[in-house]
Fold this protein.
Amino acid sequence: MSKHTMTAFDTDLRTIRAEVIDMGERVWKSVQASIAVLAHRDRDLAAGGIEFDRVIDSRQREIETRVIETMARRQPLAVDLRELVGAFHIVSNLERIGDLAKNICKRVLIMDTPPPTLLRGFERVAMQVVIQLRLVLESYAERDDGKALSVWSSDKAIDTAHGSLLRELLTHMMEDPRNIVFCAHLLFCSKNLERMGDHTTNIAESVHYMVTGHRLDGDRPKEGDLHFFHLRPMHGLQPGFRA
């Protein structure tokens, strides 16, 4: 490559990195807001979350187009090619996380208010997702493989919290059949969070490959539903959407 071409390529890469980071921040705020929607029964915020997903979808398409055009123009090799392929995979997983946050907002619009005890179980799942998503976004921005591996190995914490809530919901349903409908809705919300955790670990795998050039071998660590995990209460979530 000529010096001019290399400089232009570096500019393309920096632009893509900045756009991926920006999309990640938007998705993270969307997840936070969806959790607040359920915790506070905020229907206006739910409607905003559903609409905001259009922005996330648009950002995904813009970044994917930029990645494809950059690959076609620059024909990158080695680490630069990994950077572009990784960005493509990451924004796809971010878009899916945004969809799952939107689904929680949609469900809140049609469900009754769950008892506070069940909401605490939901918040335990949510807190793990928020923590891991924040960490994996930092791993991408900082090119920190250690943080990526930490996220990849922590997926079991989200599974454990989800399994614990599942047992609570089943018990509640068996105690009174009138609880079945809202418990089912809450179960779907928790499952959406659990799926967010899966996409977060997918992002961690992409970051690891970008940084090291190696794929993670074997299945990601999982933990059975019969284990418990001590989680912090949910604090400091500031819902809101930015176009």
Notes: DSSP finds seven helices and no strands in the chain. The helical segments are 3-40, 43-74, 78-108, 116-142, 145-152, 155-175, 180-212. Residues 224-239 have pLDDT under 50 and may be disordered.
